[in-house]
Amino acid sequence: MKSNSILEQIGNTPLIRSRALVNKPGVELWFKLEGHNPGGSVKDRPAYNMIKSALERGDINENTPLIEATSGNTGIALAMIAGLFNLNMELVMPENSTEERVLTMRAYGAKLTLTPADDGIEGARDYAEAKVKNEGYKMLNQFGNPDNWKAHYKTTGPEIWRDTEGKVTHFVSSMGTTGTIMGTSTYLKEKDHRIQIVGVQPTDDSRIPGIRKWPKEYLPAIFNPEKVDRIIEVSQEEAAHMARKLASKEGVFSGMSSGGAVTAALKLIDTLDKGVVVVIICDRGDRYLSSDLFRMTD
Predict the structure, then answer these.
(1) Distances (CA, A) of 241 to 68, 108, 208, 237, 255
(2) Domains in the chain and their CATH numbers?
(3) Residues that constitute the known binding site for pyridoxal 5'-phosphate
(4) pLDDT for res 293
C-alpha cells in the first residue's frame, strides 16, 4: 500500500480468526492484531490523536517541552510521532522496563528518564506531574486526555464493526489507561447496545505489564465504569502461559497483556453458547525478548 507518510499506516490492523484455541460450535474468537501498527502497538492510535489534536488546537508547538509517563508502548508511539512533528518529548518510565522499549524510544529521538522500579508507573506519573507543576513542562496526559479514547471511537470501534460485518457480540480488552476500552465501547454500543464490553484486570497478587488495577487516587480520569459490562481477572501465570500459547499454536507473537486478554476471552467463551468475540492483541512479542516471558516453558 502506497502512503505519503508512515502516519497513514496507523490503524486498519488485521482481524484474524482463532483456529486453535476455540472448538465450540457457534462461537468465534477473533484477534485484532495491533502490533501491525508502525510503532508496534495499539498505542499508536491515541498517541497520534493526542499530538495531532493538540497541535490543531494550538495547545502545543515545536517549542513546547512535553513530558509523559509511560509503561512502554505509549512512550514508543509518542517518541515516533513527536519526532515526525519535530516536538521536544521527554518520556518517564520505571527502570525495570524491558531493554527493547528503552532502546526503541531513544532510537526515535526522545529523551528518556527512568524512575525507581519499586515506585512503578505511579512513581513515573508523580515525577512527570512534578515537572509540569514546577518546571513549565506540558503533559499530554494519556490517563486524562479525551483524545486518548476518541482515537478508538474514530478508528478501532469502526474497524471492528466493519470487519465483523456488524456481527460482533463481545469485545474484550485489557485495561491500562482504559482508552482502548472506553473509545471502542462508546462506538460499538452506539451501533448495537447489546454488544457486551469485557475489561481485563490482574488478580491482586499479579504484575502484568500493560494491565492495571489502579489505586483509587491513580484511576484514569477518562475511565467510565458504566461503559464496561463485565470485568474478568487473570493471573500473571495465566497471562504468560497464554502469550506463549498464542505464539506456538496461533502464530500470534504478542506480549503478556495480550495473553491476559485472550485468557479472559476464553473464560468468557466458556459461558457462551454462541457469539462473535473480538479481543485486542495490543502489541508484538519482540518487545519482551529480553524478559523472561519467552525463556520459560510450560
Answers:
(1) 31, 31, 12, 6, 11
(2) 6-36+155-288 (3.40.50.1100), 43-139 (3.40.50.1100)
(3) 73, 176-180, 257
(4) 87
